[in-house]
Fold this protein.
Amino acid sequence: MKTLTTSLQYFVVQKAGLSNKDAVAHILSGRVLVNGQKGQLTQKLLPADEVTLDGKVIKTTTEFLYLAYYKPRGVESTLNQGIENNLAEALHLPHRVFPVGRLDKESEGLLLLTNDGHFYNQINPAETHQEKEYRVTVDKPLTAEMLAAMAAGVIIMGKITRPAQVTQVDEVTFAIILTQGLNRQIRRMCYKLGYAVERLVRVRVVSVELGDLKPGTWRHLTSAEMEKLKTQLQLSPNS
């Protein structure tokens, strides 16, 4: 998912069906306005920008959405409607939003959703090492050795996982805080240590918590949550 960075000239050519020559003339003469101001030929457009041509709106502003969603077990973290049980059909939202990160089909819990490309690119890449917290229930009693190994790192897919914070919750359940997101990472780690995951729930992404959301429901992030996230992700206040 990328932030819209099309130049104004290219946008006017495509949207208004003008030639390059006519688009340039319209922009230079002030007939094309961006947010009420005379546009510039190479000006980059953002989703929040409104563009008018001779007073007619040819690009509306995009309302940014930031949602917390409890992905139920069995739902795929994809918008591809060719895949059964995809997010698009599960959400039934009027706006297209993108999942920030993934949860495998058999896992459940917190999934952030947004249509803000800048926000997405700040939080989603693996190299940003943002914290994600999980509750994991396994098929047999935990041991101190197993928990220590999960915390120190386990070799999966030819590489050792980053150190993690691990806390025992009960006889067969532990909490783990990861700062990476390898494919089916927790399940693979447990398997290498002789355990099978019976339930895996993500309860936190950075500072946003699952809270009392029920499976299949979503809510808007609060202004307090957004401000805290922006501070942690070093986003500008207008992002």
Q: What stands out?
A: The helical segments are 8-16, 20-28, 87-91, 117-123, 144-152, 185-192, 223-233. The chain has a mean pLDDT of 89. The first strand starts at residue 32 and ends at 34. Residues 63-130+212-239 form a domain with the Alpha-Beta Plaits fold (CATH 3.30.70.580).
